[in-house]
Amino acid sequence: MSTVAVLGAGKIGEALLSGLLHSGRSADELLFTERHPDRAAELTERYGVAGVEVTEAAKRADVLVVAVKPQDIDPVLDELAPLVGPDSLVVSMCAGLPTSLYERRLPEGTPVVRVMPNTPMLVNEAMSAISPGRHATDRHVRVVEELLSAVGKVVVVPESQQDAVTALSGSGPAYFFYLVEAMIDAGILLGLPRAVAEQLIVQSAVGAAKMLAESSQHPVLLREAVTSPAGTTINGIRELEKHGVRAAMLDAIEAARDRSVELGKAHED
After folding, report:
1. Domain endpoint, select from 138, 159, 180
2. If both were cysteines, with which of 133, 157, 184, 242 could 161 make a disulfide (CB 3.0 to 4.6 Å apart)?
3. What is the pLDDT of residues 4-58, one digit of tens each?
4. Entry pTM
């Protein structure tokens, strides 16, 4: 499969284009769609990739990566339906939308692979989970794995787990940003300049993430290594437990999962 078209060149769509180019793919093998002409011209100038209409993308591309907002999916599918089929590969990056929606709206036999990426794709550190639809083969899965490996790590999961993935890793960066924001505010409360508090917390987050990624130890053991008896950290942990931070995180991720389910149901017949 030689030509890839990204339908919807928002932040995630642009990040994928950038990652594919940096991985060695030629700009001539890529296309994108963008409904705002100024934005399209900007991306073409930046990357050398042609901006086209959805219908042209469907005619020219072997792989169509749908990266529009879930609420904008209907007109895109209407345009794709007459032009795609078993020889195309449709890759959905739309949160909450099941492969069955595409299979129902597109010609019989059209292979669809569902993907839940996240915004660290912007720095080539995405975590993407992929699930094949009824007509997608192992070959189609390998194609999508190769594409997304250019911008981070990839895991294959059953589609029944995609709503949970959306809540966990899809929304996950926002939870980390929220926590970092709160910790910076705490540093300011304790008298540190904002710039110093931000540097302290951001680098601590980077270091902690690297330890998690490179260590074979469970997060509990890594936390315990920082938590001395009667020390400062255990007093802070006690307050987190007292205020139910762990329970709040569980509730937040469950609520995000429920919203992902709702997005899928909104497009059921």
Report:
1. 159
2. 157
3. 999 999 989 999 999 999 888 999 999 999 989 999 999 999 999 999 999 999 9
4. 0.90
From its phi and psi, is residue 243 left (phi > 0), alpha (psi between -120 and 50) or beta?
Answer: alpha
Considering the domain architecture, whether residues 54 and 150 belong to the same structural domain is answered as yes
Could you tell me the pLDDT band of residue 200, with boundaries at 50, 70 and 90? very high
Which tokens belong to 172? 């996950």
Whole-angstrom distance between the N-terminal and C-terminal Cα of the chain? 32
Strand partners, 126: 152
Of residues 188, 205, 189, the one with CA closest to residue 197:
188
Q: Which of 159, 187, 222 is the last residue of a domain?
A: 159
Contact 152, 121 (CB under 8 A): yes
The answer on 228 and 112 residing in a single domain is no
Q: What is the DSSP string of 75-103?
A: HHHHHHTTT--TT-EEEE--TT--HHHHH
Q: What is the CATH number of the domain that holds 201?
A: 1.10.3730.10
Sequence letter at residue 16:
L
Backbone angles phi and psi of 27, in degrees to 5: -60, -25
The answer to whether position 252 is within a domain reads yes
Q: Which domain holds residue 229?
A: 172-262
